[in-house]
Amino acid sequence: MMSKWQKYPAYKDSGIEWLGEIPEEWEVSRLGAYFLERKQKVSDKDYQPLSVTKKGVVPQLDTAAKTNDGDNRKLVRVGDFVINSRSDRKGSSGLSTLDGSVSFINIVLKPQNINITFCNYLLKSNSFVEEFYRNGHGIVADLWTTKYWDMKSIMINIPPKQEQIKIASYLDKKTSQIDKAIRQKEKLIKLLKEYRQIIINEAVTKGVDENGKLRVDNGDFKDSGIEWIGRIPKHWDVRKLKYLLNLQNEKINAKGKNVIALENIESFTGKYVQTNSQYEDEGVFFEENNILFGKLRPYLAKVFFCKFEGIAFGDLLVYKATSQYFPKFAFYRLLSSDFIKIVNSSTYGTKMPRANPSYIGNLKLPLPPFEEQKQIADFLDNQTTKIDKALHLQQNYIEKLKEYKATLIDSVVTGKVRIV
Questions:
Q1: Which of 159, 362, 369, 401 is surrounded by the most beta carbons within 10 Å?
Q2: Are residues 205 and 341 in the same domain?
Q3: Tens-digit pLDDT profile for the chain (420 aa)?
């Protein structure tokens, strides 16, 4: 793709820091000369409410903050460019394909004598986004705001009309190709995550054979007597969880200790996530090889295998494996999709559904021989490591595609390269 990029025949100094040199035949003008502010006040009863996101202008999201001030909104017409003025919504903007209304925190621009698709790429480019917020004002970063009065004097580059159309058409095509590649990678990531859960579920339910592969039911399985488990190897036993894992309740002060809360645990993988959360009250003490299980919204599968000691906060249950239960096997058992599903089906409360520790403790679980538990845990360590490497590779590829897309848009709309 890069090989098709060329330079324009001649360049000139724009005199504007964020633009630098621009093609000689391009003009530099104040933004206000090409965009008028639309300030018409309307009601969301007459014009559908819209949300302004990083992906553009969309019908109002369910997660959007709702107010009782639905009569105090701004009109948006198809072809308007809408941008959120708050720095904590940085990059939330786009060309509207809908008539509707937005909150007054947004700036609604009506393009004048400029190709609207070109203007969409220009005003959503990283370079312009940074310049837009540089022209804002406020006391602290979270309250930093840019108004139309601030932005209308920003100098922008304007190519000849035919060049605008050519650039818009080229970027439509190229960004569509990049977005398609990203969607394919995201689909692969989803499949890899599903495969990860399947492997875990199969291994803790069926075990692995002498060749280190998932065991197949060749008639040497039996009915476990547990509806959500089904058949298990004949030599396995069944025990209630409370006889395999002891629930820990010792509370100590968190000051100076390692602290883990729900937000520190990645769903479905059990990986530690660093946050800025700080706790200084009392929490439940956990030791190395303990297992933490999130009882709040258990469908999120917040399960953590402790490699150090510390304090667990919030809705985390702390379990210590008995001598019958290999700790790492216990971790995978609690992380398995069938266990998560059965626990989640028992929750109480609508807004903040929680699982009852007594219910969890009374769940019956398959119990392989101890050495076989270790074998299964080793197998899953090996398999999940391979899958996680594949996931990391795909996620990195997506990041590179996104970086390339941003660089492509910036370079083309500012004339640093010429498309052919």
A1: 159
A2: yes
A3: 444 678 999 999 999 999 999 999 999 999 999 999 999 999 999 999 999 999 999 999 877 666 666 678 999 999 999 999 886 778 899 999 999 999 998 999 999 999 999 999 999 999 999 999 888 887 655 567 888 998 999 999 999 999 999 999 999 999 999 999 999 999 999 999 999 999 999 999 999 998 989 999 999 999 999 999 999 999 999 999 999 999 999 999 888 888 999 999 999 999 999 887 777 788 999 999 999 999 999 999 999 999 999 999 989 999 999 999 999 999 999 999 999 999 999 999 888 999 999 999 999 999 999 999 999 999 999 999 999 999 999 999 999 999 999 999 999 999 999 987
The domain boundary, picked from 134, 158, 182, lies at 158
Cα 75 from Cα 394, distance rounded (Å): 41
Domain limit, last residue, from 132, 158, 184: 158
- Residue 88 and residue 206 in one domain: no
Strands (E), 134-274: 155-158, 221-223, 231-233, 237-240, 245-248, 251-253, 259-260
Q: In Å, how far from its chain's centre is CA 230?
A: 34
Residue 252 belongs to domain spanning:
194-390
Verify that 141 and 198 share a domain, yes or no. no
Looking at residue 293, which CATH number applies to its domain? 3.90.220.20
Helix (H, G, I), strand (E, B) or coil at 122: helix
Residues 100, 59: Cα–Cα separation, whole Å: 9
CA distance 339 to 361: 12
8 A C-beta contact, residue 398 and residue 186? yes
Instruction: Clarify whether residues 219 and 127 are in a common domain.
Output: no
Rounded to 5°, angle at Cα 39 from 149 and 88: 60
Tell me the DSSP string of 11-69. Answer: EEE-S-TTT-EEETT-EEEEGGGTEEEP--EE-TTTS-BEEEETTEEEEPPTTSPP-S-
Q: Tell me how far apart the alpha carbons of residues 181 and 164 are, in angstroms, rounded to a whole number.
A: 26
**Contact present, 242 and 361 (Cβ < 8 Å):** yes
Q: Ramachandran region of residue 409, left (φ > 0), alpha (ψ -120 to 50) or beta?
A: alpha
Q: Which residues, in sequence order, are bridge partners of residue 418? A: 6
Closest CA to 57 of 39, 21, 36, 81: 81
Q: Of 340, 366, 370, whose CA–CA distance to 355 is shortest?
A: 340
